[in-house]
Amino acid sequence: MKLALGQGITTTFLSGAVVDPTGSVVAGAEIIVKEETTGAEHRAVSAANGAFRAPALTAGVYSMTVSARGFKQAVIKAVKIDAGIPASVNATLEVGATTDTVVVQGGAEVMQTQSASISTTITGRQITDLPFTSRNVTDLLLYLPGTTTPGRPRSSI
């Protein structure tokens, strides 16, 4: 049996900017966004204004590696991506040899500034761990942000 939920978005994008310690943009920096559980990699290059965009990312936790000639490589860990919610992470590169690496521990601050829409991702663990009797995923939809229930609970939009 297949369950199809209308207008479900399964991917999103990660964007941001690459700058040096003075705040000047770094053009041509290589960005590798790697999904930590599957190892899937997505590559991007920063534009002339330092901006980059990695499209078609599925929900998960990612690490981001940023490198450019004349700068130390920056590694940003624990970047959480939710389906359908655009995320933004900026990277600051330190001057140095490309063989040096700066690792940012504790995760990056992900800021969603591209859309005013409200969405969330429900994991299988949430379905099994939440205290409700039916264990039916469609019942969980009633508790999502932005869901309204005009009339009966099963007629949510």
Full CATH superfamily name of the largest domain: Carboxypeptidase-like, regulatory domain
Succession of helices and strands: EEEEEEEEEHH
The rough form would be described as elongated
Largest sheet: 5 strands, mixed
| Widest sheet, order of strands | 3-2-5-6-9
CATH top level of the largest domain? Mainly Beta
Q: Give unreliable regions as ranges.
A: 1-6
Q: What structural class results from the helix and strand content?
A: mainly beta
β-strand amount: 25-35%
What name is given to the CATH topology of the largest domain?
Immunoglobulin-like
Number of strands: 9
Global Rg: 19 Å
Arithmetic mean of pLDDT? 79
Number of structural domains: 2
Fraction of residues in H or I helices: under 10%
Distance between the amino and carboxyl termini:
23 Å
CATH architecture of the largest domain: Sandwich
Total count of helical runs of at least 4 residues:
2
Task: Kindly describe this structure.
With 157 residues, the chain is mainly beta. The chain has 2 domains: 11-104, Immunoglobulin-like; 124-155, no CATH class. It is 6% helix and 34% strand. The protein is built from 2 helices and 9 strands; from the N terminus they run βββββββββαα. The chain has helices at 124-129, 137-140, and strands spanning 11-19, 30-35, 41-45, 51-58, 60-67, 73-81, 87-88, 91-92, 101-104. Strands 3-2-5-6-9 form a 5-stranded mixed beta sheet, with no helix packed on it. Strands 1, 4, 7 and 8 form a 4-stranded mixed beta sheet that branches. A hairpin with a 5-residue loop joins strand 2 and strand 3. The chain is elongated. Mean pLDDT is 79; it is low at 1-6.
